[in-house]
Structure formats: C-alpha cells, structure tokens
C-alpha cells in the first residue's frame, strides 16, 4: 500500500559497516546476474518514459480537438496511445520478471554463503549466538535485503517519471512549473513527519502486543496449574486488562496510519485547486491571445490539462521519494546483519591438512593453555597422557574445565598454548574433517535430527547398510529397546528427537558412535536422570562402546566412575588428583568431597540409609 | 454452547456455525461502524467523481465566448472544498473501519482466551503451545487485517468502480460502452490472476516455514554436525531448500509481472479516449469539458485495478484464520464441571483402580487391566520405562482423562461421579516440568490458595519444603521475581517451590512426578527430605528415578508397556519380580 508505510516496525540497529561498503558488496552479488539486471533496468527506463508520455498524448488530443480536429490525427493519437500502453505493460512485465529472477538468484547465493559460513564457524561462535538470531539472519534478513533492490529500482523509476514530466512542463511554462516545484517541501514535510509518528505508534503497538502474547503463552503453558488450583477467573481478569490496553494502543497506531492517505489526498486537492486556477488563467491567455490579469504566460487548453495531470504524477512519487532513505537504511541493516554473519573470523585454524591414518588412540595434552575470552583462563597448563584403549573419567565441579578438555580434543575450540597430540601427530596439522571421522562424540544432551531412528544411527556413515544398523542397534541396548519404539528402527524421532525419551535418545546416540567405530570415544554424560530400567541398558551399551577404544568420559554417574581405568579429578582447570575410585576414596581428598556431593546418593548404601523419617 | 470447565458471566455470545457467520456476528456487535464505513466511502467516492466534473466545467469555461476569471476562481474554490470534504469523509470511513478492525481483534482474542480457559486438561495436553500461540497471535491479527485494509479496500474498489461509471452515465449513456467492457474484462483477468497466484503464494509460505525449521535444527545440532564431520551434507540440504524457495519466488514474480488487469486498463483508457474524441467530433453538444470529465472519470478506475493485486488475498487469509480459530474453539471438551456431583471435604485419600483400561486412541491401549488399592496416607511409587504408562495412570485420578473400561474410585466413589471442583481442588500434582509464573516467589507459592495466604503461612510452607534458605539468599527474598525479568531457578529450586505450593494447598492426594530430576544436585539430601515430608499425612503417587524414594515407598507399582507386572513393598518385589530386581542388581554385583 504505497511504500510510505514500508518498514515501520524495523528495529534500530548499530551499524558497523559504512553505507558505501555495503552497497559495494550488494552490487557485487548482483554482478552475478548482470544480464537480468541490465535488461530489467532498461525495461524500467522505457516503462517510466512511456508511462510519463501518456498524459502528454492526451493533452495533444485535447489540443487537436479544440483547434483542428481531423479523423486522421485523432486516429493516429489514439493508436499511439494504445501502442504506448501496451509497450509499457510489456516493459513492466520484463522488468518485474527479470528482477524477480535476479533477486531470487542473489538471495539464494547469499543464503548459501551465509549458511556455509555458519556451519563452518567455530563452536565458540555458536555459543555466543542464540539459534533464533542466526536463523532469522539466514532466512528473514536475506529476504529483507532484497527489498533494497526493489526500493532502489522504484526510486529510479519514480525519479525518471518525475523528470520527464518536469522537462515537459518546463518547456511549456516555467512559472507554472516552478509553482509545482514549490510544493516539494510540503510533500517532504508531510511524509517525513508522518513516518516519524507512525513509527513511534508502531513500536508502542508491538511492545504491548508482545506483552499480551507473553501473557497468553504463560497462561497456556501453566494451564494445568491454573486449573488444578482453579485460578481461571483471576487469570482471565489479568488477560482482559492487558487485552484492553493492547486495543487502546493499536487503535492509536491504526488511526495514525490511516490519517496519512486522506491527509495527502486532501492537501493534494487544495494544491490541485491552486494549479487549476493559475493554469486556467494561463489557458485563458492562450485562448484570447493576449496578456491576462495574472500574466503567467499563455498555454493551450491541452497544456492546461497536462499541468493538471502533472500534479498527480509529481505529488505521489514525491511522497515515496521522501520516505526512500529510511527504508533503504533498513534494507542495508538487514544486509549488514547477513554480511557480519559471513565475515565472522574463524578461530580454529589448521596449519596443515595431513590425512589421518588409522589411529591407535594415544592422546597427549602437553601444557595446554585455554582461554575463551582472553581474560578468564580455563585451562592454565593442562597435561594429560592417555594410552590406547584406556578409559578415563573426568570429574570436578561445574566450571572445572572438564567439557573444555573434551571439546579441545574434538578441535571445536582453539587453544592458546601447548599442543595436543594424537598418535604423536599435532591435531592442528590434520585435515579437520578427516580427523573428526575418527572421533565419536556424544554431547550432554543427545541430539537427534528429525528423521527415523535408522537415519540417525547412520548419520556419520550414510552409506552403512540396513543390516549393519540393525546389528549395532541390537548390540547397544538389551531386551528389545527397538521393539519398544512404535515403528522400530523406522520410528520418526521428531524435531530434535523429542518423540523419543531421554534414555532412548542416548541409546541412539551411542549406536551412532558404535556404527562409526571411531578410535577415540568422548562422552559428556547427561546430568538428568533417566528411569532406572533404561539406565541399566545405557550402562551396558556404554560398556560396549568403551571396551574397544580410548575413551574419555565426563562422568556424572556413580557406575561410570566405579568402572573406569583412571579418574582425573579437576579443579579450576588443573588436575589435582588421579587414580581409581578406591584409592581416591581412601585418600580422602577432593574426590572424596565430590563423591559426597554428586555420587553418594546414587549408591545403595545411601538408599538404605535414606529411610523415610517416621514421625 | 459446548461444555466448559470455566465460564464468564454475561459474556458475549457469537454465532460459531461457520467462519463467515462468526465474523459477521462479531461485526454486528458494532453495527454503526460498518455503516459509517459504507456511508463515508460512498460519499467520498461521489465527491471524488464530482470533482472530475468540476475540472470538466473549468475546461468548458475556457471555451465559452467571454470567460471571466472570477468564474474560474469560483470553480477552483468549489473544487478545493469538494476535495477537502472528500478527504474528511474518507478519513471518517477509515477511522470507522480501524475501530472495527481493532475491536474485532480484541474481541476474537478475548473469546479465544476464554474458550481456552474453559477447555479440559486433556485438550491442552494434545495441543502444542506453539500452535495455540500461532492462532492467538497471527490468526487473530489476520482477522484485523482482513477488515482493515482488506474489506475496506475491496469495498472502496467496488464503490470506486460503480460511482465513476454511474457518473459517466450522467454525462452521456453511450459512453458507458468502454467502462462496462472494462469491468467485464477486469473481473475475468482478476479471477485468472488470483487463481494462478494463490497456490504459488501458499507454497512459498510453506517452503519458507520448512526452510526456517530445518535451519533451526541444523544450528541447534551444530556440535553433532561438526563432530560427525557432516558439514557438507547439511550445506547441500540447505541449498536444496533455498533453491526450492528461489524457484517459487521467481515463479511468483513472473505471475505478478503478468498482471493482466493493468493491460486491460491501458486498453480501456486508449479506447475511451478514442470514443470521447469521436463523440466530440460528430456531436457539437459534447464539448471539451465533457471530454476532460470523462477521461478524468476513466482515470479514477486506475486505483481499483491496481489495488486489487492484494486485497482479495487478505480477505481469503482472514477467512482461513477465522476457520482455524473456530476449529480450536468448537473442539468439544470431553469433561465438564459436574456441579451436581459428589462433594466431600476433606477427602480421605483412599484410591482404588478396578480393571482400568485406557488408550489415547481406540486401538492402542496405554494401560491395560490395571488394578490396585491405595489406603489413605500411603505412598505409592510407580516405576517403569519411559512410555510404560506411568504418567497416564496418574492422570486418570484427577480426570484429565476418563477411563475406557473399569473404574477409578476415590473414597469409594467413581471419579466420574465427583463434583469436578471438589475432586480437583483436593488432588495436587507436581509435574515433571515445573511451571512457575513470572511473578514473585511468594505469589508462586501462594498461587493455589489465591490471595488468602498470609506471609507467615507462605514462609512456613517454604521452610517445610526446604526452600526458605535459598529464597532468603536472594536480595529481595520472597519478593524476588522469576522469569525473564527476574532470576532463573535451578531444577532443584523449582521443585522445592512446587513442593511448598503443595504444602500450602494441603491436598488429600498428591501426585509427584519427579522423573526429570537432575543427578548433579548438591542439595539432594534436602530435596529428599522435603519429598518425604510432603508425603506425610496424604496419599501420594510418586513417579521417580530416585531409588531411595522407590525403596521406601509403602507400595510400588511396576509397569511394563501398560501392564502392571508387579506390586507390593520393596521386599516383596525383590523376592517376586525379576524386572524390579534388575534395577538394584547392578549394585549387588559390586
């Protein structure tokens, strides 16, 4: 509905790139589709010229009619008019179709670049960016970015038609044309002050709407409690008050926005009346062939008509030109958000891309130093040697650096000092993709992709046969956990695996690792408990996975710490104790303390001792 | 009126028999507003057409033998006046519609909200919060947009076609030929246009949604993608999604570019000029003023042609939204308040399941032939794998669902015979996902008893629930806000708030679903203690992974795929139930 109303609800955004830089990059993308863009631009020029010629022809027609009408001249004029209209329609078609093609391709290229960048960014990047923000940059901002192109095209087309009309008008009568141009500040003043008000009202409306929505969301999410305690009336009253408030604010916004068109057309009406009078006076001069009372300069009747038409073709494009800049800025902001996504510097940098042979599973951390922010040091000087086939548990309070050790080994973060060797090779020199194929990593919340259980098990090895998947699934769990799934291996796991229970998700994640048969297994144990039956199954599956390979487990479960070869006790990024469960317990150090906090209540002794108080 | 669990007195009733009737019944609450819009629009259009006649008069004036400048001034002033009045009238019309549209949104949201509060818990269990939110926000907004600018513009276009054409008829009847032909072709081409555009536009919306959700999934799973070295595959998948979207985008662009009504208008304009000049040449009674008026009136038809590109879509989308909202509101809720039912306070807490069978759909029973008996004050632990029916069993108690076969008795009375209010208010549940409202801690604890609880009672409950100490640890103590504006509580803290809530509400029967408890909890002892305490003096059903809670329950129910494969005390089950023994077996090996 006219682009004076466009982009009212965009957020202010801090700019880091200069306008010039952004425009250059945008043009760079469009260079790929130079042909379509050139055709579209040429069609646009033609369209604007032809469109502007229409009132000129009508005015000629009127002149012919009032002076020396002949059938031939009228026929020629009408034929020209029809041809012009047809051509204008066709050029408009070419312009729109070509620019849709170009914009479609550019948005696709941009999305592709942005997604590739996102997938290849380090984990530290993803830790800082909420998922929703990245998604909206990838999908919505790339779309909004394309608006700048539409806007710019429209701007040029409007300027062109204003220019054509202006030239025609100037050539007829300078004073009248100046009179029209004198209205320009008025148009700009109305359009800009209106935009300011409307933007304000829109922000208020959005804010209050967010409140209402939050209220509904909370009510719906907490409905069980509201009903359990029969608090519906109270909740309804709260909602009602907010709903009423939203109504008030929205009415203000609606009224503001709806004022603009009547205001513009009303003002335009008055301005037209002024031109009607002055141009009419000139036409009178023209008809009488003598200087009139106002002495503006004589024009013909047809030219009078042209001036009347010129007003309309001048006024409305001007309102759009006035609001171009702020909308163009919105589009640039969107482009900037996308570019900054693409430009984020990776921190994990490989120094070489050596191919990785079959690994035995030696792991050496040599004086590794790690800091995520540059200030807070997570691992000051970490050394650890693990022999092939060994199973090591990392224990410690939250923040002790356990997860960091695991993630460094998977090369998900960059470290600042020392080195990490696998079978004697510096992991910074390896081909990253190749190296990771030799790792099996199960993060704390076992993440599944939507698709079937089978798809998820063979995620890392899509070429694995159905039989292999079945074998692995059978091995990882006991007593028909697959049969418990509604459609066995073909069960859809739902978005992020939510249709499976936590325990089932962990079994799938273990099967995924087992199928890939990695030399090194890294497990970040879940802190949330699963039911005791599934717990027993996971335990068995885990033992199977850990049996044949070097394993590092961030342990949260008592049965794990009891079974591993070696427990590494960490505090503030340092190893302060190591050994097996019994020796560490006897020692009575930090491990014994951790045991009290995290593991004791999982023991049978605790269960027996925790007798229900009889009162 | 369907059965409701919650009703507001003297609430406005609407006709819910069809989406259109429903919207109309909403509109008719404020009959003066659509009337205002209609009058305003019609008059504004009449004045607009009249202003074109005035311009014609001005051109006629210049061709008269002795034109006086004063006459032109009169015409110009008249013109300005007419246009000003036109602007005021169309503003009036816009204002009317705007009020109507905003009221529609407000009323629809209100009606939907009331209806949601009135639905049973089983209804809410089946609905995803996301979907409900989409209807309460987008669909309700869409109804607003349907009125303004949707219906307003359609009406405006309609009047904007009829009035100029009628005005043309007053100039000369024969001049109607071109405009009428134009209308016929406009209708045909518009229909063709929307028929082509709508499927593509729908497909685009769907594809955009798909692309969004796939991207969201990939990014949430980025760690898994990286460690499995599957970046390339994800890139390929995304590219395919984005390329599909691009195809649709280009296709839509092509359809929009080929907007035939504009060509129809162009042709009509040329033919109109031909016709006007033709009449002018053969008929001296038809002067330049008539030509200008006529061409001006034909020019007015440009706006309706142009604006129709998107108005119809708005109305269509509004109707679809209305349908979606209605579908939600008219879903029958299975249970009702049963005000005449059995009421008793306080409840004893005796529970008996007699051959209970239940399934969410008919073919797959979730519980099969379950029977047990719980005495008042007993603690019953329910164990079994995820999906074995533990949670479902507890939901039959407070009638979130009703059994298919058999019956559930509380204090000897079938729950279906109880007064809903009396039954539910005496059975409290502490769910797995503990939900806290974004209010102060004190209000959250007192939520169950409304405003009646005094500070002393709240603190007592918090002490019993082992929550007092950590609450006092916050700067603002009991007044600390939870949620976005306030603090985030850990799982264990949330649980203790919920337990405090239960202490205050003091129900005869308590359902405690503890199945997502975190192992990594430094306050395990305190939680255990709070849980044991809250079980005292009431019948408690507990779903838990904490072995100590299972170990010391009065009675344990072992479920496997909906069947009760064992019940009894810990000792009895260790002797007689293999599945139960397995839980404890891994400890015995050591």
Q: What structural category characterises the helix and strand content of chain A?
A: alpha/beta
Strand content of chain B is: 5-15%
Mean pLDDT of chain B: 86
- Uncertain runs of chain B: none
Distance between the termini of chain A: 74 Å
Strand order of the largest sheet of chain A: 6-7-8-3-9-10
Please compute the radius of gyration of chain B using only Cα atoms: 36 Å
Most residues in contact: chain pair: A-B, 165 and 166 residues
Structural class of chain B: alpha/beta
Distance between the termini of chain B: 64 Å
What does this structure look like?
- The complex is a heterodimer of chains A (615) and B (590).
- Chain A is an alpha/beta fold and 615 residues long.
- Chain A contains 21 helices and ten strands.
- Chain A is 62% helix and 9% strand.
- In chain A, helix 17 links the parallel strand 7 and strand 8.
- Chain B is of the alpha/beta class and 590 residues long.
- In chain B, the strands form two sheets. Chain B has a six-stranded mixed sheet. Chain B has a four-stranded antiparallel sheet with strand order 2-1-4-5, with no helix packed on it.
- In chain B, helix 1 crosses helix 11 and helix 5 packs antiparallel against helix 10.
- The mean pLDDT of chain B is 86.
- At the A-B interface, helix 2, helix 3, helix 5, helix 7 and helix 8 of A face helix 2, helix 3, helix 5, helix 6 and helix 7 of B.
